[in-house]
Amino acid sequence: MTRPASMQQKRGHVKQPRFMKRESACSFTSKDDSSTTAGKAMFQMLGVFAEFERGIIRERVNAGLARARANGTKLGRRRVDPAVEARILELRANGDGVLKIGRTLGVGTSVVQRVFKQQPSLHRAHQVS
Question: Does this model's pTM top 0.70?
């Protein structure tokens, strides 16, 4: 069931909402206006400086990670205890599902799935059935 259009819609008098129109940015508190050539240049310069700053941050982060690796720091999450991994495999062999195993052992489902991926024969056997 279709809704009847209003008389304004039928006659074509419906105005497009202001937020849907392509307009320039204008500030009431500053003299920046993107409708002028100088305003466009100013906004482009702001974009250039933002991109430059982001690049500097990326370089610093990568340098810090490289320094940590050079100092022998292990990056990433710590592995789950081998006893927990063995228990995960044991529960899976009993037929328990991923969510139940995770809840039983207090670990996330992503941990359980990662342990399954490390044991490809067990993972495929339960995936088929």
Answer: no
